[in-house]
Amino acid sequence: MIVTLTPNPSLDRTLEVPDLRPGSVIRATGTRLDPGGKGVNISRALAANGHRTMAVLPCGGTEGEQLAGLLASEGVEVVTVPIADSVRVNISVVEPDGTVTKLNAAGPRLSATEIDALATATCAAANGVRWVALAGNLPPGAPVDLYAHLVSCLRGSGAPRIAVDSSGAPFAAALRAGPDLVKPNRGELAEATGMPVTTLGEALTAANVLRARGARTVLASLGPDGALLVGDATVLHGEQRVAELRSSVGAGDALLAGYLAALSEGSAALAEALAWGAAAVSQPGSGMPGLWDLDRSAVVVHTHIDPDRLISERN
């Protein structure tokens, strides 16, 4: 069992368009509605590949009911914490070359009582599981140190390994609590360290800064340049071939799900993560890949890193 917490989940509506032209009327060529949020996507990817997973999330309004129903239909066990306001709705516009324009709502403001209930539900769900993933931005009203508090509480209760995938001040605070794994993308790696991340060498340096600040292992997703895995005795760079680029929404979440699902560590875990991430970008909208979508033969893991190799700006 792998538990995920998504403090600010969403319903994600995706529109596929032939060309995005601001100020004009455009007819969509495809549309879909998916459960959204980093932790939610991690659970969806795990369930699609036959792994037991439980998603903890706040739930309010008809949107919240619809979100919980969609997750249950995908085989995700759901723990909902009632809130007064409705869950947010996000919109993604996807062009044929894979370019995504996202319109994300801020989300409902959670009261202190609702935040406490969410934390309590997460700790209760974590009993006896293998991984707990704390993922996504925090909703309005949540304390900046929510993830840090949860890492400390889960660690004190003897819970399994803890992964954090967030950004900004909540991510910085969580680092100090010592999570087992963090998964920044290129932009988040640069933001968290205040360093340029334009080459693999700079990405490695930035990852080690995060480790010095408390993270035990860093899994940095680098978009078309693959991913970097940095731990105590591990420095690996992996790449994957993508057959068809449809949407990058949720690809990083699928990559993290693949890593958490792997029953190994090091190069094997990184290869599994990359197979899941590559399969995700071939899905429409924020669809998560299943067993038959994975192509592990398209993954290459390098034990030596070219520090001067440039990293694409596109995550």
Automatic annotation (TrEMBL):
Keywords: ATP-binding, Kinase, Nucleotide-binding, Transferase
Cross-referenced InterPro entries: Carboh/pur_kinase_PfkB_CS, PfkB_dom, Ribokinase-like, Tagatose/fructose_Pkinase
Keyword ATP-binding: yes
Residue intervals passing through the bilayer: none
UniProt protein name: 1-phosphofructokinase family hexose kinase
Signal peptide: none
CDD domains noted in UniProt: FruK_PfkB_like (cd01164)
Pfam family, one: PfkB
SUPFAM superfamilies per record: Ribokinase-like
Domain Carbohydrate kinase PfkB: 15-285
Domain of life: Bacteria
PANTHER family: 1-PHOSPHOFRUCTOKINASE, 1-PHOSPHOFRUCTOKINASE-RELATED
Protein family per UniProt: Belongs to the carbohydrate kinase PfkB family.
Originating species: Streptomyces xantholiticus
Annotated NCBIfam families: 1-PFK (TIGR03168)
UniProt keyword annotation of ATP-binding present: yes
